[in-house]
């Protein structure tokens, strides 16, 4: 039996196909349109999922959308009216979108997907997020926390997961939203709200919480563990384009104009200090929510999903909190990943089907292929064959990395994750002190404050890094910031970020034998089984999907080599 989960119109969109309760295909729409954070109806992603499984739309038992459009419209309409006349401009735009397509989503899905109307189902936004974590975790029961921008009404939701059920036990309603608070501060600091939110957690490592008192007024934490946000300082309740008011500038000083110099180092670190102050307060808000969950849910297991669950430092804060013994975070924790949750919820709770699948990897996308309508002609003439056997492939790549090369990798199924995990990645030896600089100059051109994640073999991670027991599962997906142990720091002090942490990816030899072999061979050559592992894209682009995407990137950047499955392209 096939179920299709679909998400759209949030911070990203995606599709996921289940076969008898097990994910067999999943994709984000942005990989097809090449629009970063594309949240449109994911028709291309849907077609890719069906293509992977070699089925037709008529074979779907159900297609499940990840939220209820009428309730989302209710929230939008009521909050717009409550803020009139300030909302008069945004109101017309919102009404256009809703009356133009979103209220008629069931018919549109039926028409576009080729699925009968009675097979289109809907679940709730936060339920879909919660399901993407709980039903994938392998936990029989768990407390579940979803911290997001907003769904129908809840921006934060607390659940108790038991067997096939998810029972709501609390939450915070829009417009009080931690996700939108982060987006608004991102916009205040000159970043793109929604798209660049993750940069604030990275920027916070370079600052100190000098604006603590201001954020205590902006984000008020109540005795019962809930929170509220000063609505005088923000406009996101009714305007997603201009999300803050002059009151925020009165509290924090002038906004940073996009493109202006970022104050994150030297004598003036104001921008980094604002980010650090925000994240300190977010940690305190999460503490309150975790304590509420512990009171309401008698479990030592915790599942996390929603936009804030993708931040490795907040996850480290939670893993070290002590309230829970085991923590699982949905690898695709943002809205695109809720497509998986919608399908899982329908399978387990809607249809009552037993659980059996536990997520151990995030490789559910297509293998690399030519762009539709293109053949990748001439590609073979430009490349050379290399061994496909995992051990020999690993030796080949490790030789290049040990010589200081930057190597692009496109191999196997694409990641369905918030992070690149070695299948659509660029690798560089972490033993090379100049590798970060070379990666930035040759490909990424990222802001100086941004760190680079490190891939490490699973067994070596235990002897090289201080990993909290509660958060071990998160290290597979670059979702946990950890500290190098003294012996590693002495050997390679350049590895850690300015705050002494690293974001790591523990490579599982069972599900990624090629990369595991590569790292082991790299250790034999450099003494360290560590490689910088960043997404295979240039700054501002989405991760490559097709052979043509990869070759275009290779032609315009300074990678030393590009390896597509078992063929290598060189300069």
Can you characterise this structure?
This protein has 571 residues and is α/β, with parallel strands linked by helices. It folds into 3 domains: 2-132 and 332-350, 2-Layer Sandwich (Nucleotidyltransferase, domain 5), CATH 3.30.420; 173-329, ATPase, nucleotide binding domain (Nucleotidyltransferase, domain 5), CATH 3.30.420; 379-570, DHBP synthase (Alpha-Beta Complex). The protein is built from 20 helices and 22 strands. It has a 10-stranded mixed β-sheet with strand order 13-22-21-14-15-20-16-19-18-17. Strands 3-2-1-4-5 form a 5-stranded mixed β-sheet, sandwiched between helices. Strands 8-7-6-11-12 form a 5-stranded mixed β-sheet, sandwiched between helices. A hairpin with a 5-residue loop joins strand 9 (219-221) and strand 10. Helix 3 (69-82) packs antiparallel against helix 4 (88-100), helix 6 (125-137) crosses helix 13 and helix 15 packs across helix 19. The model is unreliable at 371-376 (pLDDT under 50).
Topology diagram in text:
Blueprint: E1 2-7, E2 14-19, E3 22-28, H1 30-33, H2 43-53, E4 60-65, H3 69-82, H4 88-100, H5 105-113, E5 120-122, H6 125-137, E6 141-147, E7 154-162, E8 165-173, H7 178-188, H8 198-204, H9 212-218, E9 219-221, E10 227-229, H10 246-252, H11 270-296, E11 301-305, H12 312-319, E12 326-329, H13 338-350, H14 379-382, E13 383-385, H15 390-402, E14 407-410, E15 424-429, H16 435-444, E16 454-457, H17 458-464, E17 465-466, E18 481-484, H18 486-491, E19 502-507, H19 513-526, E20 530-535, H20 547-556, E21 561-564, E22 567-570
Parallel strand pairs: 1-4, 4-5, 6-11, 11-12, 14-21, 16-19
Antiparallel strand pairs: 1-2, 2-3, 6-7, 7-8, 9-10, 13-22, 14-15, 15-20, 16-20, 17-18, 18-19, 21-22
């Amino acid at each position: 039996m096939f179920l299709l989960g679909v998400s759209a119109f949030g911070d990203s969109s995606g599709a996921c196909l289940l076969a008898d309760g097990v994910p067999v295909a999943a994709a984000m729409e942005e990989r097809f349109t090449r629009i970063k954070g594309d949240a449109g109806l994911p028709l291309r992603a849907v077609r890719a999922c069906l293509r992977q499984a070699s089925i037709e739309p008529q074979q779907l038992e159900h297609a499940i959308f990840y939220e209820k459009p009428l309730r989302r419209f209710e929230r939008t309409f009521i909050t717009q009216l409550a803020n009139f006349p300030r909302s008069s401009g945004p109101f017309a735009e919102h009404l256009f979108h809703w009356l133009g397509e979103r209220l008629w989503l069931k018919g549109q899905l039926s028409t576009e997907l080729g699925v009968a109307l009675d097979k289109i189902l809907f679940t709730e936004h936060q339920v879909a997020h919660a399901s993407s974590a709980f039903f994938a975790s392998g936990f029989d029961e768990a407390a579940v926390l979803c911290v997001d921008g907003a769904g129908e009404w809840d921006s934060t939701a607390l659940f108790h997961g038991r067997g096939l059920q998810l029972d709501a036990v609390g939450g915070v309603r829009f417009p009080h939203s931690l996700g939108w608070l982060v987006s608004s501060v991102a916009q205040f600091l000159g970043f793109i709200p929604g798209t660049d939110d993750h940069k604030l957690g990275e920027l916070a490592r370079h600052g100190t919480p000098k604006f603590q008192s201001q954020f205590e007024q902006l984000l008020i934490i109540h005795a019962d563990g809930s929170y509220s946000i000063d609505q005088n300082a923000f406009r996101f309740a009714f305007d997603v384009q201009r999300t803050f008011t002059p009151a925020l500038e009165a509290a924090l000083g002038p906004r940073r104009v996009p493109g202006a110099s970022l104050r994150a180092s030297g004598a003036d670190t104001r921008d980094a200090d604002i980010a650090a102050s925000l994240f300190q307060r977010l940690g305190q808000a999460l503490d309150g929510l975790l304590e509420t969950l512990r009171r309401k849910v008698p479990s030592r297991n915790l599942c996390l999903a929603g936009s804030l669950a993708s931040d490795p430092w907040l996850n480290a804060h939670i893993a070290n909190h002590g309230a829970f013994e085991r923590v699982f975070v949905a690898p695709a924790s943002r809205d695109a990943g809720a497509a998986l949750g919608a399908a899982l919820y329908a399978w387990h709770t809607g249809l009552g089907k037993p659980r059996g699948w536990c997520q151990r990897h995030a490789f559910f996308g297509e293998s690399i292929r030519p762009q539709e309508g293109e053949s990748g002609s001439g590609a073979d003439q430009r490349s050379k064959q290399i061994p496909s056997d995992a051990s020999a492939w690993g030796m080949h790549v490790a030789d290049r990395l040990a010589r200081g090369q930057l190597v692009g990798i496109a191999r196997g199924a694409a990641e369905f994750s918030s992070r690149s995990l070695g299948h659509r990645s660029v690798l560089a030896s972490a033993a090379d002190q100049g590798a970060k600089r070379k990666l930035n100059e040759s490909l990424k051109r990222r802001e100086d404050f941004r760190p680079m994640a490190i891939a490490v073999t699973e067994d070596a991670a235990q002897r090289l890094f201080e990993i909290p027991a509660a958060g071990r599962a998160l290290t597979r997906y670059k979702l946990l910031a950890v500290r190098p142990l003294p012996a590693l720091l002495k050997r390679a002090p350049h590895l850690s970020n300015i705050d002494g942490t690293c974001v790591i990816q523990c490579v599982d030899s069972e599900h990624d034998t090629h990369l595991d072999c590569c790292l082991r061979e790299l250790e034999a050559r450099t003494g360290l089984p560590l490689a910088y592992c960043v997404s295979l894209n240039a700054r501002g682009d989405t991760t490559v999907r097709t052979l043509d995407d990869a070759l275009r990137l290779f032609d315009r950047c300074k990678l030393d080599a590009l390896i597509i499955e078992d063929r290598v392209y060189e300069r």
